[in-house]
Amino acid sequence: MSELYRLNSTDEDNLLAAGLLLRKLTASRTIRPAQLVTVAKLQYVLSMLPRVTNGVIASVSVCCPRHKFGDIETYHWWNFGIEDGRLRISSGGHFHDPQTGGDTFTTMTWYAVPGAPSEQEDYRESLRMVPDVRSYAEGVESIDFTAEEYHIEILDNSNPLLEEEGNQDDAEADRNAEEWFRKGLVFLDRESLEQAYACFRHGIEISPNHSMLQFALGQAFEVGIGVEKDDSQAVEWYQKAAEQGLIGAMFFLAQKYEFGQGIQSDPEKAMRWYRNAAEGGLSEAQFALGEHYLCDEVEPLTKHWEEAASWFRKAAEQGHSNAQLRLAGMYEDGLGIPQDLGAAEYWFRKAAEQGNVQARASLEQYGTD
């Protein structure tokens, strides 16, 4: 016979709260039939305690909507799961204060394995800056699926219905999020900034991995679109979008790393993100990369000048006037490329045609304007 869980009164309180979480999920109108299958598995696991249910790997997580307390914004999540007999209960959330920035936190963790005492960590004493911090049981008790929209995540590798249903849900969520993104752009065009921000925020809650919404929120915090400017929040959203391959987000993230805005300055990360954006074809990033190589004093200089000329050319060919000006100057001086006054005049003219004052002045020495 397999060993039993060694549960005390505190463990039983945690497990009662986990049971309440499952009952609330079962009663929720938002939960899907395939998800109910996994919830029923976990209810069975609880019903068998202190006996062990082997072979089940499943978990549920519920995240509440964002709540504001003055300038401070928080949200919380509650989790229950089992992995081959190892029970786990945990809770945590995210805290953001415009004065100090934001961070995720863990409120508590509880583990139990057969034949050994349980382990629990309670971090509430260290979370006094979170205005609505609460115990796991209190948090679960506060969940009201009828009053607000919650994010529910249910994982179960042995429930094939979840994947099929999840794909349908993801597609629908993406469509809804895209609609909120477009609504936000309309409000932005009308200079209704608060409404634009509200649309972007609502869209990201529907589809958290929507890269354009992540970028839009980064821009909102960058310049204050319907919300207080906050470089640390801008970095957070740019990072999410950049990691999904959004080129514009890569460029803005590179700038944040270069100038230490909202994050500690890191020239290596700045160059990496500039290069990623440049290789993706963004002319602004190609120009920025060219500038770095042109101004780099690391030997051998000629190698760096060749790199600079190469990136300026890529941006110039896309119509970037400052890159055209730089490339013309490099042709004029033979810097990193063979001297070619005809090519210099050509690129000065291209830049001048776009209104570049320096390029117009440089054309005078060629007897043209």
Overall description:
The chain has 369 residues and is of the alpha+beta class. The protein has 14 helices and seven strands. It folds into two domains: 9-158, no CATH class; 171-366, Tetratricopeptide repeat domain (Serine Threonine Protein Phosphatase 5, Tetratricopeptide repeat). Strands 1, 2, 3, 4, 5, 6 and 7 form a seven-stranded antiparallel sheet that branches. The mean pLDDT is 88.
Q: How would the blueprint of this fold be written?
A:
Blueprint: H1 9-27, H2 33-47, E1 57-63, E2 67-69, E3 72-83, E4 86-97, E5 101-112, E6 119-122, H3 136-142, E7 151-156, H4 160-189, H5 193-206, H6 211-223, H7 231-243, H8 247-259, H9 267-279, H10 283-295, H11 301-316, H12 321-333, H13 341-352, H14 357-363
Antiparallel strand pairs: 1-3, 1-7, 2-3, 3-4, 4-5, 5-6
**Whole-number count of domains:** 2
Backbone shape: elongated
- Number-wise, the strands total 7
Which bin fits the share of residues in helices?
A: 40-55%
Structural class computed from helices and strand pairing: alpha+beta
What proportion of the residues form beta strands (DSSP E)?
15-25%
CATH topology of the largest domain: Serine Threonine Protein Phosphatase 5, Tetratricopeptide repeat
Instruction: Give me the number of helical elements.
Output: 14
Overall mean confidence score, pLDDT:
88
Q: Largest beta sheet, briefly?
A: 7 strands, antiparallel
Secondary-structure element string: HHEEEEEEHEHHHHHHHHHHH
Rg from alpha-carbon coordinates: 28 Å
Low-confidence stretches: none
- What is the assigned CATH homologous superfamily of the largest domain? Tetratricopeptide repeat domain
Q: Based on the coordinates given, report the CATH architecture of the largest domain.
A: Alpha Horseshoe
Distance linking N and C termini? 94 Å
* CATH class categorisation of the largest domain: Mainly Alpha
